[in-house]
């Protein structure tokens, strides 16, 4: 599997301001969709993880840089790549691109938390194993 996951996203009118430029907070929405599809590509649904394992993934930190504007009706690519893996968290590099041009880039830290207590817990073993395999890791962090 490729280490960088990517999904296409079309910019809809609702994503833009009156000038047809994507509103800044929508880049975070695009990145959230990509993370959901990335997890789905491993065979995991977030509602099933909550039901079966009692965990949810929550964003704990975001550092984002806006470089160029995206506009109404453009087709973008939104990427996800794991840059660090901890026992209960992942740090992801994400980009919103138009062809080869980076429009926004972010480092996103997500925490695995107990769905009831909202306390950090270890990433379920099956999820961690798929991430390790996708990254080509030997099992070390």
CATH fold-level name? Thiol Ester Dehydrase, Chain A
Low-confidence stretches: none
**Total of domains:** 1
Structural class: alpha+beta
The SSE string, one letter per element, is EHHEEEEH
Shape: elongated
Number of helices: 3
End-to-end distance: 18 Å
Give the CATH level 1 class.
Alpha Beta
Q: Widest sheet: strand order?
A: 1-3-4-5-2
| Helical percentage | 25-40%
Rounded to the nearest angstrom, the radius of gyration is 16 Å
CATH superfamily: Hotdog Thioesterase
Number of strands: 5
Rounded mean pLDDT is: 94
Biggest pleated sheet: 5 strands, antiparallel
Strand content: 35-45%
Descriptive keywords:
26% helix; 5 strands; elongated; 141 residues; five-stranded antiparallel β-sheet; Thiol Ester Dehydrase, Chain A; alpha+beta
Structure notes:
- The structure is a single chain.
- The protein is elongated and about 45 Å long.
- The model has no long low-confidence stretch (mean pLDDT 94).
- The chain has helices at residues 24-41, 46-53, 125-135, and strands at 5-10, 55-66, 75-85, 89-98, 101-114.
- The chain has one domain (5-135): Thiol Ester Dehydrase, Chain A, CATH 3.10.129.
- The longest helix has 18 residues, at 24-41.
- The protein contains 3 helices and 5 strands; from the N terminus they run βααββββα.
- With 141 residues, the protein is an alpha+beta fold.
- It has a 5-stranded antiparallel β-sheet, with helices on one face.
- The two termini are 18 Å apart.
